[in-house]
Amino acid sequence: MEDYERPSVLGVGLEEAHQTPADLPVELTQADCTRRAIEMLRVMRFDLLLVALRSSSPPWNFVQAARRCSPGQKWMLVGPDHVSDRDEITARSLGATSVLAGDLDWDAIAQIACGIRDRELTRRIPVSSGVSSRDDLRVQMDEGAARSAPVVDPI
Question: What is the domain-level CATH number for residue 64?
Answer without folding.
Answer: 3.40.50.2300
